[in-house]
Amino acid sequence: MGTPTPELISPRSARVTAARRLAKRAFRGKERRFIAEGPQAVREAVAHRPAGGESTLVELFATAEAAERYAEIVRAARDTGARVHLAADAVLDDLSQTVSPQGLLGVCRFLDTPFEDVVRARPRLVAVLAHVRDPGNAGTVLRCADAAGADAVVLTDASVDLYNPKSVRASAGSLFHLPVAVGVPVEDAVQGLRDAGARILAADGAGHSDLDDELDAGRMGAPTAWVFGNEAWGLPDETRALADAVVRVPIHGRAESLNLATAAAVCLYASARAQRKTAP
Length: 280
What we know:
The chain is α/β, with parallel strands linked by helices. About 40% of the residues lie in helices and about 20% in strands.
């Protein structure tokens, strides 16, 4: 593993203090840094390097046990030029936002993509998070979008911070896999994606159109941007009015509704399957 940097014994170390501040949104925005915690997220951060840019991972904190268990990640982190700190368990406990820290924690550069770049690529499948306030849900929808093969995710200016530690954890590394634009007014997101050729579908339990009917009618194979709303109260009327159609996921059993992430997964996979059938 090479010669490690000196062990950071005290949680009051200057490097630890700087990393701890990133738990707060104001400091994340000021420093344009965020925390990626656990081996999966850190592994993806190590592998992520924007075209022509600096490595996404800036620093890595690892306990001695984790550094031995995940030696290949630590080695790869050093190869990117990131500063690697061997830290006492108490340091990781102090920095961690989880009940059971896994001994690896990375400080990463912001990696969101300008919305103009998203639309310039003329994406075929996009998830738009409008008014999504729960960080765990935001991260989970991002993970679903990645799994379904979406080309991008857009978080509107009314949605949660992409770099909230809970969002990062819930994305399970998918944050590093696909372009994500943040802070886009919902009207601009809809208009930009429509101009790029996407059909705008708002997912809402009270929608007039049924997902099964959309599939049966053959309307799901076109480029599509799905707009997902708040976990508790869905999409406001003014946002629904922006869509080409408001679509509900059919409930065939007795459940009252689906939670946001589950509904998003169903919608995105429906589009992905239909698009694969129509792909040249």
